[in-house]
Each structure stands twice: as structure tokens, then as C-alpha cells.
Write a structure and sequence with these properties.
The termini are far apart. The chain has 125 residues and is α/β, with parallel strands linked by helices. It has four helices and six strands, in the order ββββαβαβαα.
Length: 125
């Protein structure tokens, strides 16, 4: 978006790590997941997946997301691919309405929110 002063800077992406259960990493995302911020998320996820012992679960808490563009969506898909390759279940929790709408419109909602056994993982939880 542009303003009289020029392009509006994106919200920075702030990430906070917690461990809600043994072996589970929860990464709370606050701000915009977009072209300017997506790479830091991907680097962080890859770093966690390389840790030993490896995590047994990975959660992205999306409650603080303010925006997600096509690069952010691509990063979520790459995150899913990396966690699947590491055999670590990924959950996108506390998804804001705009994110569910984006995932639905792009046909990626089921791909990113259903575990391998086909059960739906609710956005709020």
C-alpha cells in the first residue's frame, strides 16, 4: 500500500518459541508473513528441525498474524514440506479468518490443516 510518503513498510515478523508439551515446538507469529519476512520463518523452522533430539511436533500459532501474501503462503507450504520430510507433524493453530480465507481460496486449506490420517485440525485450539 502506498501513502503520501511512499510505500508503507510491512509489519515486522516477530516469533516467540514455547514448548507446550515435551518435544513440541510452538512458534507464535506476530506481524506480517510476506516477501520481506518469510525467509526468517523458513530459516527458523529448518533450524528447529535440525536440532537433536528432533521435535516430535511443530505448531505455528498464527493468532498474531496481521497479513500473509503469496510469498507467505509459499513459505507455509515449504514449512509443511520440511516438517513432512522430517516426519514431524505440523499444526497451524489459532488461524485468523483472513488466513483461512486465503488458504481456502488457494485450495491449500486441507493440505495445510489435515494430518496424514485425514482428520481435520481446527484453526482455534
Amino acid at each position: 500500500m502506498t501513502t503520501a510518503q511512499g510505500p508503507r513498510p510491512a509489519d515486522p515478523l516477530v516469533m516467540a518459541v514455547t514448548h507446550p508439551a515435551p518435544g513440541v515446538i510452538r512458534l507464535r507469529l506476530t506481524g506480517a508473513l510476506d516477501f520481506d519476512t518469510a525467509e526468517v520463518l523458513l530459516r527458523t523452522v529448518r533450524h528447529h528441525l535440525r536440532a537433536r533430539p528432533a521435535p516430535t511436533g511443530y505448531e505455528l500459532d498464527c493468532s498474531g498474524l496481521t497479513a500473509c501474501d503469496s510469498t507467505g503462503l509459499s513459505t507455509l507450504l515449504m514449512t509443511h514440506r520440511h516438517t513432512e520430510e522430517a516426519a514431524v507433524p505440523l499444526r497451524l493453530i489459532h488461524r485468523p479468518v483472513f488466513l483461512d480465507r486465503l488458504l481456502d481460496l488457494t485450495g491449500t486449506l486441507n493440505h495445510l490443516t489435515r494430518p496424514a490420517d485425514g482428520r481435520e485440525v481446527p484453526g482455534v485450539g
